[in-house]
Amino acid sequence: MEQLQTNLFGKTYTEIQEIVNDLSLPSYSTGQICNWLYKKNADSIEKISNLSKSARTALSKQYTIRHDTPQDFQVSSDGTKKYLFLTIRSRYIEAAYIPEVSRHTVCISSQVGCKWGCLFCMTGKQGFQGNLTAAEILNQFAGIPEKDIITNIVYMGMGEPLDNPDEVLKSLEILTSSYGYAMSPSRITVSTIGIIPALKVFIEKSNCHLAVSLHSPFSDERKQIMPVESVFPVKEVVETLKSYKLGRQRRISFEYIMFKGFNDTRRHVNEIARLLNGMKCRINLIRLHSVPGIPFKSSEDDTILRFRNSLSGKGIITTIRASRGLDILAACGLLSTRHLSNDKPLTSSD
Ligand code: SF4
What does pTM read for this prediction? Predict the structure, then answer.
């Protein structure tokens, strides 16, 4: 029976070192392989020309290099692009490329679907279907045509990154290590609803920025839109964050989707200020994007502006996030793919 070869792409330096040792290759092969994987974008073991022929033959018996390129893409009128990738489990995932004047961001997924069922999120509506591997996470950056101009990566696509901590941390290591893509951690933001045990591991093992989904400072309200509040209350998430001495370079932000008449009052401003008191952080306000079947509308623009000014008046740096890629369902909370590989790829008209 033909043996399925393991992909070298997505492996860390330590993992490659183990493979090199197992195959009794010279120890310097580890650096050579990493160099070809992550700096020279090699798409086959044959391309690793500074490995001996016998080393390449030994590697090829069990391993391969596989880069997945997007299956499809859509372009928004604002220049945002949504890419569709096929995973090894025959499910589709989406990533969004967002060009701005001075930065080029890719928003990537960490899971197929998600188990947490936040009311405002299309991904949550498809349920959890699987974790992505580090290779599948990295492909969403390394496999798009804009790879060489990407300045920022945000883990804000499909899935809860800290529900897949091992593969997410591996991908972060490869993105930020000198043997990998050597990106500054300050260019990468991981978003979470606040899975406390994994959050602690993330803070201890990574220097990347963190964005926590807040959406209401009141527990009873937050439970209505985010079931996670019953498991990991945001108050405990904030206490956890406050217990760490975080480096000056590291940014903690709170995401706050504005629901009309629900979480956009003066009472909310006061409680947010009380909750975050003593923390160096910022808040991003986000317009609610319409998701089928939810009984909420977005707050009006003037309410959002007033909310921002009130929070700023309390000394909290607060920004309003521009919605990008709305016409192709690439904006915040709208990424979702239910389809299997033998189905037609999902498009915004489905
Ligand atoms: S917002 Fe995040 S955690 Fe909540 S359902 Fe969507 S992907 Fe999952």
Answer: 0.93
